[in-house]
Amino acid sequence: MTATTRPLIRLPTHSYATLKAMSKVMKKPMSDLAAEAIERYEDDLFWDEVDREFEAMTPEQWRRYRKEFDEWDAIPAPALPADDWSGQWRADQSRAQATARRRVVGRSESSSRSRARGSQASRRRVG
User: Fold this and answer.
1) Cα–Cα distance for residue pair 68/54, rounded to 1 Å
2) Chain centre distance of CA 34
3) Crossing angle between the packed helical segments 13-26 and 30-56, to the nearest 10 degrees
4) Which among 55, 83, 106, 125 is least buried, having the fewest CB atoms inside 10 angstroms?
5) CA distance 31 to 9
6) How far apart are CA 58 and CA 54, in angstroms?
């Protein structure tokens, strides 16, 4: 990716630490990982909107959509190449390995959250 600007954004400490750790594991600059995450989030929002629109269709709208879809599908065209999911598989494996490393090296998030709650509770005044 090419950097066109150098904006300053503030992140919560945990988010920054996570981004930094992912950068080391994936051997990619933090800015590239942040850009990829934003693009993925944008895609997720788009497909969520598509799903909402499909769910909002009336039966008549759905029939018209399926009819048009079937008409387009019936047009003869050269076969599409097979999907290559190897990149997705590698990304899933990398994510699984990072999660496993975190479990072995670090503490689980649930235990750290409970400790954090405990320390907050001890600081509260009663009465």
Assistant:
1) 15
2) 11
3) 110
4) 125
5) 11
6) 9
User: For residue 26, with 0-12 CB atoms within 10 Å meaning exposed, 13-18 middle and 19 or more buried, which class applies?
Assistant: middle
- CB neighbours of 18 closer than 8 A, spacing ≥ 6? none
pLDDT in tens, 39-90: 999 999 999 999 999 999 999 999 999 999 899 888 888 877 777 777 777 7
**CA distances from residue 108 to 15, 28, 73, 104, 122 in whole angstroms, order as listed:** 16, 25, 49, 9, 22
Amino acid at 86: S
Tokens read off for 17: 């630490």
Task: Using the structure block, give the residue that is written with the tokens 């050269």.
Answer: 78
Residue 29 in tokens: 């600059």
